[in-house]
Amino acid sequence: MFENSLVRGELIEISDAWQQVQSRRTYPAVVSAIMGEMMAAAALLSANLKFDGTIIMQIHGDGPVQLLVAECDAALRLRATAKLRENAEISEQAGLQELVNANGEGRFAITLDPTDKQPGQQAYQGIVALEGESVATVIENYMMRSEQLDTRLWLAADDKVARGLLLQKLPDDGGKITPLADADVWNRTVTLASTLNQQELLGTDIMTLLQRLYWEETVRVFDPRHPTFHCGCSREKVGNMLKMLGREEIDSALADLGKLDINCDFCGQDYLFDPVDCMQLFSLESIADAVQLPTSRQH
C-alpha cells in the first residue's frame, strides 16, 4: 500500500510452479509466454479475492490458438494449459491478436468459482471481447468495464520465470483521502511503472524492482505469499465427467476404441477406463432404475 493514498500494488514472481506447467506439455515459445503472463495475472487478481474460491481466466480464440486457461485459487495454487488448432502454423513473431483473434471472434472471460457453493449458487462469469495487443491490456479493459476499477498491469514470461506488477486505485468510501492527492500518487506510480521494459521485468527479482521503482515513496509492504503448482484432477472427477456424457455415448466410444484413455490437459495425468470400469460408473444408476417401490402394502 502507498501511504496516504488509495493506491495499492502487487508484485508476483512464479518460477517453480511455472516450470512445472511447462514440463508437462510443450508449446511454441510465443504461446508459452502468453500462458505465463496469464498465470501471473491470475495470481495477482486472486490475491484481491475476498472469498475462498478459484479465479479462472480464459481466452477463447478463433485463430491458431483455440483456448488459453490459467487458474489460481485463494491459496495461490496455480495451473494453466493451452489448446492449439490441429495443424496450426504459429509464427514466433505472432502477436496476441493474430494468435487468438484472427477473425474478430475471440473472447476473454474471468470466472469466480467459490469452493463451497450454496445450493443453487452458480459461479460468476464475465465475458468481454478481446480488446488489446497484450494480455495486460485485455485485462485492464476488462477490469474497467466489469469492476469500474482503475487497474494497470505489467506482465512478462520466458521459459524460466513469469513476473507481474499490478497497480490499482481503490474507491474512497470513507472520504479520508483528498481526490487531488490521490490522483497525484496514482499518476506518479503508474508513470514510474511504465518505465519498465520486458527485459528488466524478467531479469530483476521483485523486491529489487520495488526498491528501484518506488524508493522515494512511503510503501507499506506486507508478508509475502508463495505460489505453487496444483492440479485438482482426480479419477473420481473424470468418472463424473464420463457419467455426464451418458451411457449411450460411452458405450459407443468403447465399441470404437475398446477403452477410454483420458488425459488431463493441465498436468498430463492419464486415467484409463476399460469396459468394466465404465460399467461400474453406471451400475448404481442402473440399480436405482430397476428398483420399483411397491404401490400397495403386501403381507
What does this entry show, briefly?
This protein has helices at 16-24, 29-46, 96-100, 135-147, 179-193, 198-203, 206-214, 235-245, 247-257, 275-290, and strands at 7-14, 53-60, 65-73, 77-84, 107-114, 124-129, 150-157, 162-169, 228-229, 260-263, 270-273. It has ten helices and eleven strands.
String of helices and strands: EHHEEEHEEHEEHHHEHHEEH
The first-level CATH class of the largest domain is given as Alpha Beta
Low-confidence stretches: 290-299
CATH topology of the largest domain, anyone? Hsp33 domain
* Count of the separate structural domains: 2
Strand residue content = 15-25%
What does this structure look like?
The protein is globular. The model is unreliable at 290-299 (pLDDT under 50). The longest helix is centred in the first third of the chain and has 18 residues, at 29-46. Helix content is 38%, strand content 24%. The chain has two domains: 7-229, 3-Layer(bab) Sandwich (Hsp33 domain); 235-289, HSP33 redox switch-like (CBS domain Like, Alpha-Beta Complex). It has ten helices and eleven strands.
What order do the helices and strands come in, and which of them pair?
Blueprint: E1 7-14, H1 16-24, H2 29-46, E2 53-60, E3 65-73, E4 77-84, H3 96-100, E5 107-114, E6 124-129, H4 135-147, E7 150-157, E8 162-169, H5 179-193, H6 198-203, H7 206-214, E9 228-229, H8 235-245, H9 247-257, E10 260-263, E11 270-273, H10 275-290
Question: Could you name the key traits of this structure?
Answer:
about 300 residues; alpha+beta; Hsp33 domain; CBS domain Like; 2 domains; six-stranded mixed beta sheet; three-stranded antiparallel beta sheet; 11 strands; about 40% helix; about 25% strand; globular; disordered C terminus
